Amino acid sequence: ECINEKKRQxxxxxxxxxxVSVKHCEIVVECTFLDYIMGGCQLNFTVGIxxxxxxxxxxxxxxxxxxxPDGVNEYLTAIWTVGMVVQDYDTDKMFPVFxxxxxxxxxxxxxxxxxxxxxxxxxxxNGIQGxxxxxxxxxxxxxxxxxxxxxxxxxxxxxxxxAATQQQTASQYFILLIITDGxxxxxxxxxxxxxxxxxxxxxxxxxxxGGADFDAMEFLDGDNGVLRxxxxxxxxxxxVQFVPFRKFQISPKExxxxxxxxxxxxxxxxxxxxxxxxxxxxxxxx
Length: 286
Ligand SMILES: *[C@@H]1O[C@H](CO)[C@@H](O)[C@H](O)[C@H]1NC(C)=O
Ligand SMILES: *[C@@H]1O[C@H](CO)[C@@H](O)[C@H](O)[C@H]1NC(C)=O
Fold this sequence. Notes:
With about 290 residues, the chain is α/β, with parallel strands linked by helices. The protein has a single domain, classed as 3-Layer(aba) Sandwich (Rossmann fold). Helices cover about 30% and strands about 15% of the residues. The chain has nine helices and ten strands. Strands 1, 2, 5, 6, 8, 9 and 10 form a seven-stranded mixed beta sheet that branches. A three-stranded antiparallel beta sheet has the order 4-3-7, with no helix packed on it. Strand 8 (about 170-180), helix 6 and strand 9 form a beta-alpha-beta unit. Helix 3 (about 75-85) crosses helix 8 (about 255-260) and helix 5 (about 150-165) packs parallel to helix 6. The longest helix is centred in the middle third of the chain and has 14 residues, at about 150-165. The protein is elongated. One 2-acetamido-2-deoxy-beta-D-glucopyranose (NAG) binds near residues 162 and 193. One 2-acetamido-2-deoxy-beta-D-glucopyranose binds next to strand 1 and helix 5.
């Protein structure tokens, strides 16, 4: 009932000035990133490593894949720094890791998505240390080659993310970390693959190592405007975060991880709230 106090005081028979009736009411629960994680959402963290020739021969000290006497390089540092943060959100800590752009044994054909442990039925590495060990073991067995194609590995993860959309709750989200020297060959297919993946529970983090020109990576990041597929279809949301590793060489490790992961929580919330999916164990809706 809408009551006009002045009228009520003046008129004797005044009841109301109208009635508002609610026909439909919906309570929308706004979950935070932590609500999803604590509510049972699993982050699937996949790593893609660039094994193309432009990185330089791993036996030569100027190669980006060269392991220094203490066993590190920019690839490993990037894996450690980002992985250490992400693994806290990944319950089983088993990470699928794929390489691209190398000739691989036994036939030395070029592959754009090979498990770095060479086990296609079980591409998982046990924890961040498992990734580091598999990487070190893989390096002497492959021949760095080319071209630098991102789209196969993006589409690979997208297939799993597409399967996850069958679920009725916010139970799985996929993060693909690509570490690369940035000299991409299949830019058009990659744009299309990203626009495709923007409809899925998936984010892509690209860490650029070395001193190459990263204009193409900045372009894929889409922060300066909406990324479009080669046919002009716009991405439905921004899912790519690009970070040049060198910018953080003299800063503390946490600064790189913080910058790399800055956009992911928002991207997770944005995806699940757009599709109105709640965490499997929905504590926030109590
Ligand atoms: C995570 O995604 C990868 C593909 O990137 C897939 O191989 C793996 O099976 C997925 N893990 C789970 C638990 O869904
Ligand atoms: C888009 O993603 C779906 C699901 O993974 C895949 O089947 C399809 O080939 C992709 N399309 C393009 C153009 O990459």
